[in-house]
Structures are given as C-alpha cells and as structure tokens.
Amino acid sequence: MRRQRAFTLIELLVVVAIIALLMGILMPSLKKARDQAKGVVCVAHIKGLGVALHMYLDDYDRKTHTAPNQGLWDNAWEGAAVITDYGPNDPYAYWGIAYAPYAKNKKIFRCPSTIRNDDWPENGWGVLYQKYFAHCSYGLNSYVADKKIDREFKKHDEVIVFQDHIEQKLDSVNSDMFCIGPSVSINLTQWRPGSSLVSTYWQGHDTIRECFRHSKASNTCWLDGHVSAIKESTGEDVPTYWYDGKRTETRM
User: Fold this and answer.
1) Are 173 and 179 in contact (CB under 8 A)?
2) Which among 115, 116, 173, 225 would be 20 to 30 A from 109, CA to CA?
3) Is residue 252 one of the residues assigned to a domain?
4) 2 in a structural domain
5) An example Gene Ontology cellular component term from the record (predicted)?
6) CB 135 within 8 A of CB 73
7) Number of folded domains in the chain?
8) Nearest Cα to 235, choosing from 195, 185, 166?
9) Concatenated DSSP letters for 35-47?
10) Cβ–Cβ under 8 Å, residues 186 and 234
C-alpha cells in the first residue's frame, strides 16, 4: 500500500505565508467594496427621506415641521414597562418623527456607516445609551425648520435640508455646520478636537469622521430633493447660503 506523503514544516509555512499575502492584498479591496456598498445604501435612505419630506410638504401647505433638538424615538431609555412612542413635538423627539409616516420605515433614518450618533453625554446619557439613538444619523439644517419653503428659499437646489452628521439638528453656521460662520475661522468648531464638548465627553471618538462617513464625504439632501456628497474640508469651500439661503449676504 502506497504511503501518503505529509507536508513538511517548511511547506506548511510557505502555504501560510501565501494565504497571509493574499489576505493582505484582498482585505483592503473587500473593505473598500463594503464601504462603497454602505454609501449606496445611505444615498438610497436619504433619497427616500427626501421624498417623504416633500410628501409632508404637500400635505402641510409647503411648510416644514418645527424640529425639537434631540434624537429619541420613544421612552425606552427610561426603562419603562410600557414603551411609548414620542410625538413629533415632544422635547426629546428626533426631527424625523414628523416625516416618518411618509417614510418606508424607521431604518432609513440610520446610515449604515454610523459608528456613534450624538447620544448627548452632557445631558447624562452617553455611549451606554447609544442603542436608543440608533436611528438618527442625519442632521437637520435648523434654518429650514418651521418654514414656508417656497417663500423663504428661492433656490431650492442650493439649500441643504439634512445630511450625514454626528448631531441630530444643526443649530448654527458658527458651530456645527460645514461652512465657516462670521464669528469663526473654521467649520464644525463644536465637534473638533480641543472643543470643550469633545474634550470632556468624546475622547477617543473621531467626531469629524462621523460627519463625513463615506470616504471623507457627507451625503446630503437638498431642498429640491436631489442628493450629493460634500467632501470633508475646514469650510472654505462651503458657503453659508447652503444653510441659511441668503445668497447675497456679506461675510464679515
């Protein structure tokens, strides 16, 4: 009977080395493909939310909802025996609740590339409560909230409605928007390393990456419903009128 020849140690090491080499070659490509797929899903979510927004506008005299500045959908964070959904005007509510009846489901309010949405650690929540903030990946431009859009904004294709962002509601051109406001010299001052918020509550978390989740770009929905990506920058290339709609404003 013919005896089977076993692999020598050297041959096994060569095989292992070849496998390791192939993995080293393939893994970056696989990660890139996975990241691109997540970007495609995110764009689909944003387009769907843009449609939901316009359906809402058609039903409410072309006026957007006034948006609370939080990111919760219900009172589950309280550990309540009975979970109660928040209404769109609840102070803890996420702005998306107002438009959710027109959306496919709550899942489209989450970007698949999200690592950590703002879970308001300064209010006593924080990363341990992240699961309650899972479906609030898109930050609403506060300048479009509670507005008759056709009266307030002349060029809908130049005004941002919402975009990939760590924060649920973007309050000011001087703190949490991608432009440079008149009172600052760089954008996103609230979320940059060294700010009091990041230094106190977000050490070890890449807060800027959470704003530009897709190959250093933020998927963005504009008021006319189209979607595009805004590349990461310190703000010089992003005009303030993309947020406040005031194209003729004078920068100081």
Assistant:
1) yes
2) 173
3) no
4) no
5) type II protein secretion system complex
6) yes
7) 1
8) 185
9) HHHHHHHHHHHHH
10) yes
